[in-house]
Structure formats: structure tokens, C-alpha cells
Amino acid sequence: MILVYTDACRKRTGMGGYGFIIESRDTTLFHGGTLEGVTNNFAELQAVINALTKLIELKLMHDSVLVYSDSSYFVKGFNEWLHVWKKNGWCKASGPSGKQIANLSQWQTLDVLKNHLNAKAEWVRGHAGHPENEMCDRIANYCHENQVKVSGFILSCLAMPSMDLSHFIDQEININ
């Protein structure tokens, strides 16, 4: 199983940041970046989209995928609401009174990625000491505050809290 951890942040300016960690067999990588003009929910969804897209880019599709997120909006939408929204024509309810869901394009992209990667989601409490979630939060906030992208490989998330993320700014991930 491939484990994916995501988090995002958004400040009052509408600028946001995201971070994700992917653990796959012997490989653990992290990535983070910035987002402009977003809501918090949009940023959380985009963090997952970016992580799942990175799995495809790196051809890490050999196992099922479990995404950990502290966003109940994402987890409930991904696990419970997505198939209902799709059945209702991407509306919250069926019929003429049905209102189109928010963040439609993100949810449609997540629907495709979910099916392609056989992915499920699980909620974790944010800011509660979960090492990978705490690190994703740190990556997202670092990217937002410094308006940068970071990428790299690590041996263990337990070593990440003391890492200087500035060493990883704008690095590209290449796997041969």
C-alpha cells in the first residue's frame, strides 16, 4: 500500500500553501508549493490532487493508495459524497433544486484519480502530534510564508521536524 499524507494552509490574503508526503515501499518523498486566490477547502483538495498526480508521474501505481488528511471536507467528500454528487450531476441534491457542489473541477479530478489509483482516504486529527501530518503542515506553511516550492527524498519523517527546508527549495524530483 502507498501512503500519502497531505495538508494545506490559507491565510487571509487568499494565498495558500500545500505539502504532501508519499511513502512507497523503500521511497519516501515530500513536496510543497504555493497557491493563489484559494479557499482553505480548495487548497486541501489541491494538495491531494498534486500528491496523487505525482504518484502517476513517478509511476508509483503498483499498490492501492491510502490518503491521510486532517480535512474532514476532503475525507468525507472522497469516501462518502463523491459517488452521490456524480450520480446527481455534480449537485448536492438531485432534481431541479440541486445546487452545484463547490470546487467542482477539483472534485471531478479527484474522482478520476481515485478510480485510477484505487485510492481511499482516512481522517487524522490535525495539530495532534501525528508526525507526517505535522510535517505536511510545516511544509505547507513554509512554502506559503516563503512563496517557494520544496521537494526531496527522506529516510524517515521522524527526522523531518529538525530539517532545514530551505535546502530543498525548487529542487526537482527525478526517479530513473
Task: Describe the structure in your own words.
There is one protein chain. The protein has 176 residues and is of the alpha/beta class. It has one domain: Ribonuclease H-like superfamily/Ribonuclease H (Nucleotidyltransferase, domain 5). It is 36% helix and 23% strand. Strands 5-4-1-2-3-6 form a six-stranded mixed beta sheet. The longest helix has 18 residues. The relative contact order is 0.22. The C terminus is likely disordered.
Summary, kept brief:
By secondary structure, the chain is an alpha/beta fold. Helices cover 36% and strands 23% of the residues. The longest helix has 18 residues.
Blueprint (SSEs and pairs):
Elements: E1 2-10, E2 16-24, E3 27-35, H1 40-57, E4 65-69, H2 72-87, H3 104-117, E5 119-123, H4 131-146, E6 150-153
For the structure shown, list the relevant keywords:
176 residues, six-stranded mixed sheet, Nucleotidyltransferase, domain 5, globular, alpha/beta, disordered C terminus
Estimated radius of gyration: 16 Å
Spans of at least 5 consecutive residues whose pLDDT stays below 50 are 172-176
CATH superfamily: Ribonuclease H-like superfamily/Ribonuclease H
For the terminal residues, how far apart are their CA atoms? 21 Å
**Sheet with the most strands, sense and barrel status:** 6 strands, mixed
User: How many helical stretches?
Assistant: 4
Q: Would you give the CATH topology?
A: Nucleotidyltransferase, domain 5
By DSSP, the count of extended strands is 6
Strand content: 15-25%
Domain tally: 1
The sequence of SSEs as H and E is EEEHEHHEHE
Q: Just give the CATH class.
A: Alpha Beta
CATH architectural designation: 2-Layer Sandwich
